[in-house]
Amino acid sequence: MSKLTVLSLGGSIIAPDKVDTAFLTKFNKALREYLNEDKERKVIIVCGGGAPARIYQTAFREISDSKANNIQDWIGIKATHLNGELVHAIFHDLTSDNLITDPTAEIKFTNQILVAAGWKPGFSTDTDAVYLAKRFGGKLIINLSNIAKVYTGDPKLDPCATPIDNINWVDFRKMVGDEWIPGKSLPFDPIASRVAQEEKMSVICADGRNIENTIAILNHKEFFGSTIGE
User: Which H or E run includes 14?
Assistant: First the structure.
């Protein structure tokens, strides 16, 4: 069993409106304990932009007549870099690489943690997480956000939406579609979903604010969340 796990850490839990230092403190402590139990364990943390990205993207749309998706993407990417630099600094002693902003670049990954953020327009950091998992032989991505489970629809808009425990890639991709829209909130982005399906990866979506649940997932124990895969 691979001792590498990829965490797609949503910006919505790193900085929902301001930096959530209480969450990051608990996350830092728990992840260090997990890694210290087995020095062969490795974790890739890919940081999203979350609320800061959407705030600046919304400001751009209100001010500018341009609706170019690539411009909005770049704004979001820069927000992921800010979140990523913070998380990288927190785990600086456990990583030998600078913040990764290009999953195809030269990467040493000789220590236990690799911290990454957004790369280029056309997809979210979920896709960066999939690319890094593919590069380093990971088959499991834990997608941590402020949503506890995947639903059949947006529960904020659809009162009939129900939570899903398990769903295959074909059915999940019917739900999220194939088009990437900057700033749109989805359980896992459409581009990442396509690549993950091609690589026969599994994705677990869970509420990252529940640290005990995240550690249960890392330890392959019973957890609360949704699994996407074949």
Answer: helix 11-14
Q: Are 115 and 47 in contact (CB under 8 A)?
A: yes
pLDDT of the chain along its 230 residues, tens only? 468 999 999 999 999 988 999 999 999 999 999 999 999 999 999 999 888 888 888 899 889 887 677 888 899 899 999 999 999 999 999 999 999 999 999 999 999 999 999 999 888 899 999 999 999 999 999 999 998 999 988 777 788 889 999 999 999 999 888 887 765 667 888 999 999 999 999 999 999 999 999 999 999 999 999 999 97
Q: Crossing angle of helices 169-176/190-198, nearest 10°? A: 160
Q: Which two tokens stand for residue 87?
A: 């998380």
Fold of 4-228: Carbamate kinase (3.40.1160)
Q: Where are the domains of the chain?
A: 4-228
Q: Are the C-beta atoms of 124 and 189 separated by less than 8 Å? A: yes
According to DSSP, the residues that pair with 44 across neighbouring strands are 6, 114
